[in-house]
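Intended use. Records like the one below are meant for learning the mapping from a protein sequence to its folded structure. Do not use them to infer anything beyond what is encoded.
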Amino acid sequence: MGLEKKSALLEDLIEKCGGCAVVDGGFATQLEIHGAAINDPLWSAVSLIKDPELIKRVHMEYLEAGADIVVTSSYQATIPGFLSRGLSMEESESLLQKSVKLAVEARDRFWDKVSKTSGHSYNRALVAASIGSYGAYLADGSEYSGSYGEDVSLDKLKDFHRRRIQVLVEASPDLLAFETIPNKLEAQACVELLEEENVQIPAWICFTSVDGENAPSGESFEECLETLNKSNNICAVGINCAPPQFMDNLIRKFSKASKSFKQSIALYFLVLTIYVMSYLQLTKKAIVVYPNSGEVWDGKAKKWLPSQCFGDAEFEMFATKWRDLGAKLIGGCCRTTPSTIKAICRDLKRR
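Structure written out for the chain above:
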């Protein structure tokens, strides 16, 4: 199946969902709820080695909650990371492929069960292969700063990501999900790799943000999206693992001018044209948002810091607003759970 047909799968899913599909929630969070010890440089990917059946169980829990897209456990699964644990290249690549296989098996088992039940309201979910940023591999919190150092070039980032992308593509997921990208350079590296490798699987690229306005590097999203908007490989762009309080502004920034400005423009054309132009859409790609709970991760201390958080009730309340602002894919990231996704589904699908 070529890129165009694969992209149509996502478009069709969004249409079936009434204009907004639901992505799953925090994977590592749910692993920890089940007792998994993941305080490890591989983070949630350590369960690919220690407890693959638990990974499948978590996928099933998100599917049961109503997720239309499940994201694999490969966010921090990298070949250098596995090699540093003493695994061989063959074993490392096998674990990457396993991350997709486990998600596909869970999806297929769940769909085989519910599709035989009359009156169900589920969709056959898509599987997105997670590709964490270079900063996620470093496990030092730099995915939230974008500060990789002067020696990290475009070519170095491409070399880092290349084999992982090749292996994940060979496992045939429905989508690729580049996550917590902190700067324009890494986004460009991802786009160029997809083209160089002639990847026929559509991808989304999600940045994060620490100020609700720009990428962690300080670069504007207008700068960051410039290359992505020109790529046929990129089907969606957006934000993950940023506080939910940032989503309203960031969706507006990514999507389009508010209707109230458009309605007023006839009366105040000269003044408001300048104002509206600053809000005109930065992208025509689908917009994906899956924020964390609002807690702040201390990458050096390896712990979550207390802060203003959204509970399931707030996610349920805001999901419709995010959809109405222009988001086509909505889910949760760190510290969200299947109950969060169930709440989002209640709001978006009235499940």
